[in-house]
Specification:
2 helices; 227 residues; mainly beta; 8% helix; elongated; 15% strand; two-stranded parallel ribbon
């Protein structure tokens, strides 16, 4: 039996959302302004958010499994400790958002902006990013092992302790990323921007594949001339 659907627009109150949840309804938020709202600890599983304003909205410890987010603007939103298993985000602005201790298994981000986002201590098995900005993001100790990394901009990101073993970079950037204790064994980096990488870090790339152009740039960074 299909669930009844409640559609919200404008600026619904938490009380109105609670009432629909108590009735067991599926919630669809379209063109809503929930900026700064406290939606913490709500059970919003399977909900849809489309073209919503969610700046500084709190989803702390909310149940957000299988939610769908499309073209939302959620700068500085708080997803700390939320359950986002199987959630999907498309064309969303999530700059400076917090995902600390969130459950992100099988979640997907496509064509999103996550500049400055904080992902420390997340559960992220099968988490995927595609054509997404992660500039300056905190991604410490995340695993991207054997992943196809399409159009990911990690410029200036904290990738300390990350695992990129056997990953394939299709475009994207590692320019000036922080890579202390990061592993790139067997990775294919030929299409990535490696600007700022110094040969002092070369042992972390043992067995990785880079292009002749990239190798020449690394040598020039040492002040040597390539004849």
């Amino acid at each position: 039996m299909s669930r009844q659907t409640t559609h919200f627009s404008d600026a619904p109150t938490r009380a109105a959302i609670d009432h629909s949840l108590a009735s067991g309804h599926l919630l669809v938020f379209e063109d809503c302004d929930l900026s700064g709202a406290d939606l913490s600890r709500l059970d919003l599983q399977d909900s849809v958010f489309s073209n919503c304003l969610l700046a500084e909205t709190s989803f702390y410890a909310a149940k957000l499994g299988r939610t769908r987010w499309q073209r939302c603007r959620a700068g500085h939103a708080d997803f700390e400790s939320a359950d986002l298993v199987d959630a999907s985000f498309a064309s969303c602005d999530l700059n400076n958002s917090s995902w600390r201790r969130a459950r992100l298994a099988s979640a997907a981000f496509r064509s999103c902006k996550l500049t400055g986002a904080q992902f420390e201590e997340t559960g992220h098995l099968a988490l995927s990013f595609e054509d997404t900005l992660l500039v300056g993001a905190d991604l410490r100790r995340m695993s991207f092992r054997k992943a196809q990394l399409v159009g990911l901009d990690f410029a200036g990101a904290d990738l300390s302790g990350c695992d990129f073993r056997d990953a394939v970079f299709e475009g994207g950037s590692l320019r000036d990323a922080h890579i202390k204790d990061t592993r790139f064994d067997g990775a294919d980096l030929r299409e990535a921007d490696l600007g700022g990488l110094k040969l002092a870090n070369a042992k972390q790339f043992a067995g990785a594949t880079i292009s002749a152009r990239q190798a020449a740039e690394m040598v020039r960074a040492m002040g040597l001339n390539v004849a």
